[in-house]
Amino acid sequence: SEAPRVAVVTGSSSGIGRAVVETLAARGQRVLAVDFNPEGRAVAESAGAHFFEADLTDGAQCRGAIDTAVEAFGGVDILVNNAGIQHVADIAHFPEEKWRQILDLMLTAPFLLTQAAWPHMQRGGWGRIVNVASIHAKVASPGKAAYVSAKHGLIGLTRTAALEGGEHGITANAICPAYVRTPLVEKQIADQARLNAMDEAEVVEKIMLAGAAVKRLIEPAEVAELVAYLVSDGAAAVTGADWGIDLGWTAR
Ligand code: NAD
């Protein structure tokens, strides 16, 4: 078994982030779970992780998360940038404020967290950065300009970190899931059902899984398994890549 590492996981109160916290903690990693939703404290503590409450649209709070991990555990070895939100509106009506919030949370925060964690990873000569992107890092959908732009940008950050990290033992990878069964998606299913006057099962089948070979939603624990692989010692040669976990969607 591998030496315990220190992991910082953002967006830990729910969905994919919660599953990543539980999976890494169960494998013996020391985890700092970071979220602006205080319900994340109970989630973290029941997994044996620490919790730091932070709004990651704020740069000082991003740096505070890394400082907290260093104070609690003596360093940072693994960073999982996962916190994210969605806002659906066409470009003609997309609110500037929502655009900025999404870019701050989903692109600037991963950059600032990477920057703050970097010297700690460099010092140990070992680091793992996993950026939770999306199938929307590779293809677009109408109505999701900010989300699609942030996720495409996150691939660029991932590749740059991979190039700069190579000589320091730091890898950086992005993962690109299609629809995962989380509150973020459950809200979208409800919205689409209203918009298209369909029931929710019909929305999942006809809209969400239209392009999928495997006709079901992805479970958060399945995404966490991929993260666990990418942060392992065995994945040292795997860097700068964008990993699909998309039910065969992009095979088409
Ligand atoms: P979720 O809504 O279940 O969880 C997101 C978490 O981020 C929540 O705990 C929320 O409190 C936290 N968060 C939101 N704003 C924050 C802020 N300002 N500061 C700190 N924390 C904040 O969502 P999820 O579906 O688990 O999504 C997690 C990531 O996976 C996101 O980046 C999302 O874009 C990505 N993703 C999700 C899917 C999917 O189908 N669910 C698919 C592809 C990619």
UniProtKB/TrEMBL annotation:
An annotated Gene Ontology molecular function: 3-hydroxybutyrate dehydrogenase activity
Source organism, top-level taxon: Bacteria
Going by the UniProt record, its keywords in alphabetical order are: Oxidoreductase
| Protein family | Belongs to the short-chain dehydrogenases/reductases (SDR) family.
Q: What PROSITE patterns has UniProt attached to this entry?
A: ADH_SHORT
Q: Which InterPro entries match?
A: 3-OHbutyrate_DH, NAD(P)-bd_dom_sf, Sc_DH/Rdtase_CS, SDR, SDR_fam
Indicate what this protein is called per its UniProt record.
3-hydroxybutyrate dehydrogenase
Q: State the EC number(s).
A: 1.1.1.30
Which SUPFAM superfamilies does the entry link to?
NAD(P)-binding Rossmann-fold domains
